[in-house]
Design a protein that fits this description.
With 150 residues, this protein is of the alpha/beta class. It has two domains: 7-64, Roll (2,3-Dihydroxybiphenyl 1,2-Dioxygenase, domain 1), CATH 3.10.180.10; 67-150, Roll (2,3-Dihydroxybiphenyl 1,2-Dioxygenase, domain 1). It is built from four helices and eight strands. The protein has helices spanning 17-28, 80-93, 118-122, 127-138; strands at 9-12, 32-36, 47-52, 55-60, 73-78, 96-97, 102-104, 110-115. It has a four-stranded mixed β-sheet with strand order 1-4-3-2, with helices on one face. A hairpin with a 2-residue loop joins β3 and β4. The longest helix has 14 residues, at 80-93. It is elongated.
Length: 150
């Protein structure tokens, strides 16, 4: 009997997979490492399957890979300003801020940290309120929900 196909995101960390896993565990709290590959002779972890908020990843910690860039990002829909602030601050502490809720962690991986409430403002049936929210968002780095109100 054939098994159904699955889709996982593969991330190539240049020789710092264990550091990334530790950071993601501290930041997201729900990181579950499902399995790991054998350590290399230098003791570093070569591969690991893990999940963040139920999304499955395979990480590789082999040196010499391409650098991450912003053409791919991971989007986290979080509830409320406190959670938005917490995640944004953790990721940008040693990473970098971007525009409109985008940021980069210390490993170069791009993230979108967006509060669920943002959609209520951007999709407001009142065209003036919606336009205001869109314009306000375009001027933000971290999304501030209160600043989306017209």
């Amino acid at each position: 009997m054939p098994q159904s196909s699955t889709l996982k995101t593969f991330l190539w960390f240049n020789n710092n997979l264990e550091e990334a896993l530790d950071f993601y565990k501290k930041t997201f709290g729900e990181v579950i490492v499902h399995s790991s590959g054998r350590p290399e002779t230098d003791g570093k972890l070569m591969t690991a399957e893990f999940s963040i908020f139920g999304h499955q990843f395979i990480g590789m910690g082999w040196p010499g890979g391409p650098e991450f860039n912003s053409s791919i990002s991971l989007s986290v829909s979080c509830d409320g300003q406190d959670e938005t602030d917490r995640l944004w601050n953790a990721i940008t502490k040693e990473g970098a801020e971007g525009q409109c809720g985008w940021c980069t962690d210390q490993f170069g991986l791009s993230w979108q940290i967006t509060p669920k409430q943002m959609g209520e403002h951007l999709g407001n049936p009142d065209p003036e309120k919606s336009a205001y929210a869109w314009q306000a968002m375009r001027g933000m780095k971290k999304i501030v929900i209160a600043d989306l109100y017209a």
